[in-house]
Task: structure prediction
Amino acid sequence: MDIEEGRISSGYAKPPWIFKGSALYQIHLVKAATARTFIPKEFRLVEAFGYTLGGFFLASYDDSPAGVFDELVVIAGIVWNPPTSCAWAARVLVNSNEACHHGRKEVGLPSHVARFSKKITAVPKRKKDRAFGFLDTFGLGTTLSHPQDLMEVKVSEVDGAASADICNIQMRSEETKVKKWMGPAIKMSLPSFSGNTKYNSNLLKYSCHLHCRVRPVKPAVVSGALEDEAKNLSSQESLENERRLSIAVMLSKPIVALQFKVLTMQVEAPTVINPSI
Result:
């Protein structure tokens, strides 16, 4: 999307930048051949048996320098630059012009404006099977103790007056009547590389320091209107290449999902690096 850069008044003060909200961090097995299309030649992809670790970071911020907004970071894979390895973002989608402008100019991210449509569907509670009700005594019954509402997040990239559906992400809704255990409070750092874009040609390194409650959850199911096109070689030419490959990352096999609650994320200012292979 062509953002009118000069008309955007940034609320981002001097770093570090603080974001508060919640997020789903899902790690996938991504084909190395797909991930390499995003990785600059200066870096070496961390891979084994033809795969690397990528996935996505889906966040909803209720407090940030850009106010309230949603973000989907598509992670292509892990790259190596001695003495450390860092994640590389294939595409960043946000429903905030200000956040998009900041990501492009200051952090060197491949940011794009997107629309996030959210819908919650109630899934009825299953009835207890009387024939096997005695198994509940041993915790083996088939009855669900509470309804499992599903949240569907539809992400569409906006380009002027046009838009392109990226994916649908379906996960268990957090809105339940029973208070869920949110997991232990932890502190962690997610180092990342960025840059090498038309908005910021430098190769950069930055860190996100997270303080949150974290717990493992069932991986979200990713699908969408473009799923068949992303898998079908005959229709690949109809999609913009980087967008198509980003969808392929989203559709790759999930291996673990972590829910971050009561999230405070501190993003440090990027530094210019000279990578060595």
